[in-house]
Amino acid sequence: MDNTINVQHTHVSLKKSVDTGGLLQQSIQCFVHVQVMDDQCYDLCTKLVSQSYIQQGKQAKLVHQKRIKHLLQHRKLPEDGWTDQTIELLLQELSVMDSNNFPDNCGVGEREARIFSPLVATRHYRFGHGIGRSGEITAIQPKAAGSSVMMKLTNSLMLDVIKISGIQSAASCFIVPMATGMSLSLCMLTFKQSRPNAKYVIWPRIDQKSCIKSMITSGFEPVVIQNCIEGDELRTNLTAVIEKIEELDPDNIVCVMTTTSCFAPRVPDRLEEISEICKKFDIPHLINNAYGLQCTKCTHLIQQASRKGRVDAFVQSTDKNFMVPVGGSIIAGFDAKLIESISKAYPGRASATPTMDLFITLLSMGSQKYKELLKERKENYQYLASKLSEVASKHAERLLKTPHNGISMGMSLSSIIVKEDKDVTEIGSMLFTRFVSGTRVISNSSTDSKINGLKIINFGAHCDKYNCPYLTAAASIGMTRTDVDTFVTRLDKVLKKYKSSVGSNCDVQSVEEKTSNNIP
Ligand SMILES: *Cc1c(COP(=O)(O)O)cnc(C)c1O
User: Parallel, antiparallel, or unpaired for β 200-204 and 253-259?
Assistant: First the structure.
């Protein structure tokens, strides 16, 4: 048993993990002062309870200390997930280091992390200062050494996770308390600073409103590149990208924004080729990797693109990839300086909540469980494909062939439409009332939509006209085989009911009403 681990040792590594040049000193003094149970305390305990029992209790505590010390030294995802008790011990020790928790602290500033409600204080483990300083979101906060340690550690764990996920040469990342769309805006606005004339964003079409808003709200003009239909797949039109760049002049272009994770039948963009184009024309390349971190098809593309050409940053959602509540995203890249410039563009301090949610989740999960979840997801994708395929052939439909998309898949809804004016998207609503969420039904009737002033034909389909109507489903992290089974059973019932309703020429609505008691 390694008895040399003690409180002081932990502090030494703590100090090293945040380069503060003595800023942590004050808090560490306080930490030592408030520190739970040192050797002397244990000695005093032996006057109350027999020495051997106290010794045993001390040994148990060493297990927690050892894990914490290892984390601070290596700053990588632990292989085995931690127990909640170890995680809570660390969170308590870190929050004790923040000035709002200093005993006798006298705050006379306008922001002193006072928390009115004990419920709120508990919900945040008494962290109140958020992360960052006014000048930079990844800067350490002198008033909050504990929060700063947590932020630095979480960013470091996240970089490890990104590498484990398949982007081995990622150099830097940081967690932002804004969802993906806002983080894409932050990246583009940072690129703009060194490209004063730029106002266009070259954007291979992906029908997701936050993507469009990320450009328009930032004051940029999206230049829509229509996708090519290749077999069943919708893929990047590289020729059109090059033509647009030449037409508009590279200097006027903020970046090319590509997308990895997307609804089938669209597949991830041709990242390698785009990154080469961006390198050739000296244009920043921003990748929307919203839920792509969980899929090696997406991560390998990003890794390869960075080898072949230019990738400035890739952005992913925290909730979609790590099963935490919505609220954060991760901005990552291959050049630490560039990623730092994006973190410096963030105005002001930021909520620590998405960071803490990830800190807790990653420690609780550990690398082994994370890899297991990724593997299960891949297996569930295969399982979903085979089950959906069965249901499809039962109804004279088929699974769309979209081998480049490793998360989402589509099933045709061609024969199911008997009457032209029948709204196939009804199937989506019918599934939703049966507690199936996340599917999308796309009809192929082209209607114009205006999304934030941008005219998009047939919005939702990623193209103006697709070969057939279809329904999509995705296998994402945390999904179970039971979810798949339940989904296909309910889908089968819904399709039967829908067909009987169109067959008998009556309204789906009325069939729905007649049978609304036997849901699902
Ligand atoms: C989820 C998602 C986004 C962004 O959504 P946020 O709500 O901003 O996280 C953007 N693009 C795609 C493809 C997405 O799936």
Answer: parallel
Residues 301 and 398 in one domain: no
Give yes or no for a contact between 136 and 346, defined as CB atoms under 8 angstroms apart: yes
> Is it the case that residue 32 has pLDDT exceeding 50?
no
Q: What is the pTM of this model?
A: 0.90
How do residues 72-120 score in pLDDT, each as one tens digit?
999 999 999 999 999 999 999 999 999 999 998 888 999 999 999 999 9
Q: Per the domain annotation, does 286 fall within a domain?
A: yes
Measured CA to CA, the distance from residue 105 to residue 167 in angstroms comes to 44
100 lines ligand 1 (CB under 6 A): no
- Which positions ≥6 away from 258 have C-beta within 8 Å? 204, 236, 269, 271, 274, 285, 286, 287, 288
Q: What is the pLDDT of residue 419?
A: 56
Q: Using CA atoms, how far apart are residues 20 and 11, in angstroms rounded to an integer?
A: 13
Ligand-binding site membership of 133 (annotated): yes
DSSP state for residue 399 in the 8-state scheme: B
**Cβ atoms 54, 41 nearer than 8 A:** no
Which residue segment(s) compose the domain that 145 sits in? 3-151
For residues 189 and 338, membership in a common domain is answered with: yes
* 205 CA → ligand 1 middle, Å: 14
For ligand 1, the distance from its centroid to the CA atom of residue 184, given in whole angstroms, is 10
Q: Is 307 annotated as a binding residue?
A: yes
259 lines ligand 1 (CB under 6 A): yes
Confidence (pLDDT) at 518: 38
Q: Which of 21-30, 213-222, 399-408 has the lowest mean pLDDT?
A: 21-30
What is the DSSP secondary structure assignment for residue 209, as one 8-state letter? H
Structural domain count of the chain: 3
Ligand 1 pocket residue status of 365, Cβ below 6 Å? no
- 349 labelled binding-site residue: yes
Domain of residue 144, CATH code: 1.10.10.2160
Give the pLDDT confidence score for residue 71 in this predicted structure. 98
